[in-house]
Specification:
The protein has helices at 7-15, 28-39, 47-58, 74-84, 89-96, 100-114, 119-128, and strands at 20-21, 44-45. With 133 residues, it is mostly helical. The protein has a two-stranded parallel ribbon. Helix 4 (74-84) packs across helix 7 (119-128) and helix 5 packs across helix 6 (100-114).
Amino acid sequence: MTTFNLDEYVYEALRAGASGFLLKDAPPTQLLGGIRTVATGAALLDPEVTRQLVGRFAARIRPSEGETDLPLTPRELEVLRLIAEGLSNSEIAASLVISHETVKTFVSRILTKLGLRDRVQAVVYAYRRGLVT
């Protein structure tokens, strides 16, 4: 947790092995949720930090040729795009009018189908394949 939303702090924290990065001004519920998320072995970045990091790399990332076929259903693809936009599971649930548990199931399926470790890899995957801009 930090007060500063600076790239070098994020990079250094991730290089040091951090699984989460939240800003100090995050609401208490988000902080507690972040702690719980990381405790389960998942990764978590503050949505604003995610947007900034992805924005910095998006211009350098090009979709891979021949990788247009995705093993995802249309709904899973929709969830992946929302993940890449930095939405939390709760925000995705509200946006799609589905339960939080259903979102968790979709996220799990997406990670499994694409062979990804966590949400951060899912964001990179989505940007590399041009699923979001």
